[in-house]
Design brief:
Number of strands: 10
Structural class: mainly beta
Largest sheet: 10 strands, parallel
Shape: globular
Length: 125
């Protein structure tokens, strides 16, 4: 498979619940609920619905994502896309017509992307 080829695809009208881990590029055009862990790229199509916890290198969102997202490289919200939840990434691109509701945390250059501390996290140390 080539470097820019899609490794897996969850088509429109398909739903999946559980855990997904992958290398390379995965595109979701259906519904996914669960955890996604990858050193690759997740593409969420315009009619897709993704919810859960996502830890990926890159996220491209054209549909609905309701999640806690850690993206090591970049998040792009395309026109018509909606994001609800929390994002931690060094680069965030929001196109005209995209919507975002929630928290965004962008680490300083060179700082690693780590999980966002929630309201119940221990802040004593």
């Amino acid at each position: 498979m080539g470097k820019n080829e899609i490794n897996a695809f969850l088509g429109a009208g398909t739903s999946y619940q559980g855990h997904l881990s992958f290398h390379g590029i995965v595109r979701i055009d259906g519904a996914f609920d669960g955890d996604i862990v990858s050193d690759g790229t997740l593409m969420v199509g315009k009619d897709a619905r993704v919810s859960g916890r996502l830890s990926v290198a890159q996220l491209f969102c054209g549909g609905l994502v309701e999640a806690e997202v850690l993206a090591a490289r970049k998040v792009v919200l395309h026109r018509g896309g909606t994001f609800r939840g929390s994002i931690r990434t060094p680069v965030l691109v929001i196109e005209d017509g995209a919507r975002i509701e929630g928290r965004v945390d962008m680490p300083a250059p060179g700082e690693p992307v780590r999980a966002i501390a929630g309201p119940d996290a221990d802040r004593s140390g």
